Amino acid sequence: MHKNKRGLTLVELILAVTLLTTVLSLAFSMLLGSLRAQSTGFEEASLQSSARIVSETVNQVVRYSSAVFTIPKSSFREDNLTEGWDYIGLSADQTEIVRYSYNGTSHNKETLVEPQPGITYTLRFQKEEPDNSNKVLRFIIEAFKGGASQGRLAIETQLEALNSLQIIDRGTLADAATAVAYRDDSRPFAVVGTIAMVFDTSGSMKEDVDGDTTYQDSKEKINILKVEADKLVDGFAKEDNLYISLVPFATSANGTYNFVNAKSHATQLKNQIDDMDAIGGTNTGDGMRRAYYAIKAYNEQPSLDVTPKNFMIILVDGETTYASGTQSGGGWWNPVTYSYITRDGNVNENNEILGTGNTTTTVVTNYDQMIAQTVNDYVSGTGNDIKVYAISFSKSQTLFNHIRSVAITAGASSANVYPYSDDRDLGAIFDAIRQDILNDLWVVNGPA
Questions:
Q1: Contact assessment for residue 198 and residue 287, using Cβ atoms and an 8 Å cutoff
Q2: Which CATH superfamily groups domain 191-440?
Q3: Spatial separation of the C-alpha atoms in residues 279 and 288, rounded to whole Å
Q4: Could you say which DSSP state residue 424 is in?
Q5: Domain spans of the chain?
Q6: Which positions ≥6 away from 85 have C-beta within 8 Å?
Q7: Of 156, 236, 244, 248, which is least surrounded by CB within 10 A?
Q8: How do the pLDDT tens digits run along the chain, 448 residues long?
Q9: Where are the beta strands (DSSP E) in 188-341?
């Protein structure tokens, strides 16, 4: 019997090769996809690990450093590092995150996140609130692949600086902060702040802010002042290095209190504020005089081994109607002369007060200007001068013009003279002043 030994035809061979190629191609694609997925997984894991390292490092830095400053992108570079400060930030090419540690003579560089092919990063630091006493910092890190517009990874954290006096945020919308500078040495309280709170307690403080009689205690200016001044003391009491003297004034400022530490004597200060009563005329010059000498006496203590920075907050609700001094002479043969009191100490309200108590005269406004100039001259230009803030606690433009003139003579900038209006209540004004004082009292010079 004859058997058919015919082989594969060309068509069958082509089909077999095609089928085999297809199967091998599919298998290879699956293997390649698996390898790519595995590589992506490794890459994602690496990014996650790197981000966690940075996050944990920043967390420790912010929480426990004695000083923290955010540094704008334009300022963070290796040739612009300040002695004594450590840094964590994003490299200029955005491919790595680095730390610079100061070793006493120079900065050692350490890479926290190594460069990876095709990967770039963004790193941003921003305070949640501009208030300098606020210590919460927002921290965001993102990783991008091949110029993608959306990050492959994003971590956002809010951190609170537990040991820092302040966090200073130098970033802006146009120049975001991509680094932090920090130090963890003990905070050197080489600076203390003396704050004289010079508050008007004249009879008109029983009126409301429109200058009208009110039968609601909560609308009386004296009670509004008490509430907001108590809050101001609470804000200052969060710091260790602030000393406050309360200087209430009306016909005179005979009830001036000595400086005490705001933190350890907060209750005492608030009790002094709550004891204020609205009675008498307005002798703004006498309030400034007593505050000036209180600051001077504190600064000149023989045992004082720190450098004080001095502040005076003046609140007035009416034009000056009294001055401290004496009058002599009278009549056409003996012209009247006035002798102003510029020394320290109380005055005798029976025979050392000038003015009518009802109206403003040249005699009393000259006294305001004389004492204001004395305040301005105090160790002027040395850094120990007295920084003055003034508040016109009335809607009267005439009063505001008068207070502004006195305050500027005392050395205040126009920005630190505050009018009162419904849109800017006393609490907001006190908050602005408190923030400014705390900023001035930052005891460690910030990095470049």
A1: yes
A2: von Willebrand factor, type A domain (3.40.50.410)
A3: 18
A4: B
A5: 51-183, 191-440
A6: 102, 181, 182, 183, 447
A7: 156
A8: 555 555 667 766 777 777 777 777 776 676 665 555 444 444 566 667 777 777 788 888 777 787 788 899 999 999 999 888 899 999 999 888 999 999 888 999 999 888 888 888 888 888 877 655 567 888 888 888 766 555 556 667 776 666 666 678 888 888 999 998 988 765 444 578 999 999 999 999 999 988 899 999 999 999 999 999 999 999 999 888 899 999 999 999 999 999 999 999 999 999 999 999 999 999 999 999 999 999 999 998 887 777 789 999 999 998 899 999 999 887 667 788 899 999 999 999 999 999 988 888 999 999 999 999 999 999 766 667 899 999 999 888 888 999 999 999 999 999 999 998 766 789 999 999 998 888 777 644 567 6
A9: 191-200, 242-249, 260-261, 307-316, 323-328, 337-340
User: Which residues make Cβ contacts (< 8 Å) with residue 415, sequence separation at least 6?
Assistant: none
Per the structure block, which two tokens stand in for 137? 């910092």
DSSP label at residue 418: E
The pair of three-digit structure tokens given for residue 406, joined into one six-digit string = 């006195």
Strand partners, 182: 68, 86
What DSSP element (H or E) covers 111?
Answer: strand 107-113
The 3-state DSSP class for residue 356 equals coil
Residues 6+ apart with CB under 8 A from 446: 67, 69, 168, 170, 181
Query: What's the length of the chain?
Result: 448
Structure tokens given for 311: 């502040």
The torsion angles phi and psi of 339, rounded to 5 degrees, stand at -120, 110
Give first-to-last CA distance, the chain, whole Å: 104
